[in-house]
TrEMBL record:
Keyword line: Membrane, Transmembrane, Transmembrane helix
Lineage: Bacteria, Pseudomonadati, Pseudomonadota, Gammaproteobacteria, Vibrionales
Pfam families named among the record's database cross-references: DUF2867 (PF11066)
Keyword Transit peptide: no
Parts of the chain that traverse the membrane: 309-332
Transmembrane helix is among the record's keywords: yes
Gene3D superfamilies linked: NAD(P)-binding Rossmann-like Domain
The protein, known as: DUF2867 domain-containing protein
Superkingdom classification of source: Bacteria
Length: 355
């Protein structure tokens, strides 16, 4: 809107569903198909749109760089066929060899359906709600105009989905995960692309050096996990019972951490001195996760954030996440306050936050 009000001519592309890794609409459909054998949906699930492959959309965008407009223009972009959301989910199920049933419920409004989205999809709730709200409208885009200006072969729905599923692993092949080979190897098709998260942020007057020194002692004798160590040990024994190795103790050095270090079943996959440590979750569970410690210096105070990130594996992964959430929030609150206390803090206030 701001660009349109400028003196520069602007080209707008309007797309419906984009089929590609990270596309919120596509990931919501993936989560529904992977998590639920039967889907009760609003009647508007029969609304039609024209899904387009992400690579086709990117090709249009790249070519438009060399085609500066002389005036403002709006072009629709679309794939080679129109289909309903229902048909897209059924065809997605066939691609991943997971038969599903979609049952439209007349009295189930998009607003009502949006309330339980957080229990079904890992896509951020505000985005998922907006997408569900748009179900009531047909979005039959006509991409003839841009296809005449920038001709290309448009991928079918099946081709676009197959490519998107293969590229979802890129969510862990990035700096946040430290390009860690163990994380990449453990990623599986069907894991939620968008992670769930829960954490606690503490505001304190403890010094940056003191906080960092304490965090680096994670897992050492006498320190262990700062708070509720009995709960940590209980989870480790649960892991051992199902064949995990969480009860084995590892620490290369009691005072410092470096990339690749093991802390019991955890692995240091990212580290920024006096600011950030990310640990790869090593226990057996339906999904892939990491635990982060982040310190920020705000001049006259510091914040310490301890946060878990979880990519659930199907419905069981979501159940595991919500079952563990009360313990996570309780433990992270205690951990942050314990770290601040060990760092000689005089002031420590904070709050939990989840998504």
């Amino acid at each position: 809107e701001i660009l349109r009000q400028s003196e520069k001519p602007v080209t707008e592309l309007r797309a419906g569903i984009i089929i590609g890794p990270g596309s919120a609409a596509f990931e919501v459909m993936c989560d529904f198909v992977y998590h639920l054998p039967i889907m009760l949906t609003p009647k508007w699930v029969t609304s039609r749109n024209s899904p387009i492959a992400l690579c086709n959309l990117l090709h249009y965008l790249f070519e438009l760089i060399n085609m500066p407009p002389s005036s403002n223009r709006i072009w629709d972009v679309s794939g080679p066929e129109q289909m309903s959301y229902k048909d897209q989910m059924i065809r997605l199920g066939k691609i991943i060899h997971k038969p599903i049933r979609v049952l439209p419920i007349p009295f189930l409004s998009p607003t009502l359906a949006a309330y339980w989205l957080r229990f079904i999809t890992s896509v951020p709730t505000n985005i998922a709600k907006a997408l569900i709200g748009g179900l009531r409208f047909d979005l039959p885009a006509d991409g003839t105009q841009i296809q005449q200006a920038i001709p290309q072969i448009l991928l079918t729905y099946e081709e676009a989905v197959s490519i998107a599923l293969k590229k979802q692993v890129e969510v862990v092949a990035n700096p946040i995960w430290g390009f860690d080979p163990d994380a990449i190897e453990r990623w599986q098709t069907g894991y939620g692309y968008y992670p769930k998260q829960a954490g606690y942020t503490l505001k304190t007057d403890a010094s940056l050096d003191a906080l960092w020194q304490q965090i680096q002692r994670l897992g050492t004798p006498g320190t262990e996990y700062f708070f509720a160590n009995s709960l940590w040990h209980l989870r480790e024994w649960m892991d051992k019972i199902i064949g995990g190795n969480a009860c084995e103790r590892y620490r290369r050095d009691p005072d410092t951490l470096q990339l690749g270090d093991r802390i019991d079943s955890w692995k240091v996959i990212a580290l920024e001195d006096k600011h950030f440590i990310s640990l790869l979750f090593g226990m057996k569970a339906p999904g892939l996760g990491r635990l982060e410690f982040t310190i920020k210096d705000h001049g006259n105070y510091r914040t310490l954030d301890i946060r878990a990130w979880w990519h659930p594996a199907g419905f069981s992964g979501l159940l595991y996440w919500f079952a563990m959430m009360p313990a996570h929030l309780f433990i992270f609150r205690g951990m942050t306050h314990a770290v601040a206390k060990r760092s000689k803090a005089k002031i420590a206030t904070g709050a939990s936050n989840i998504q």
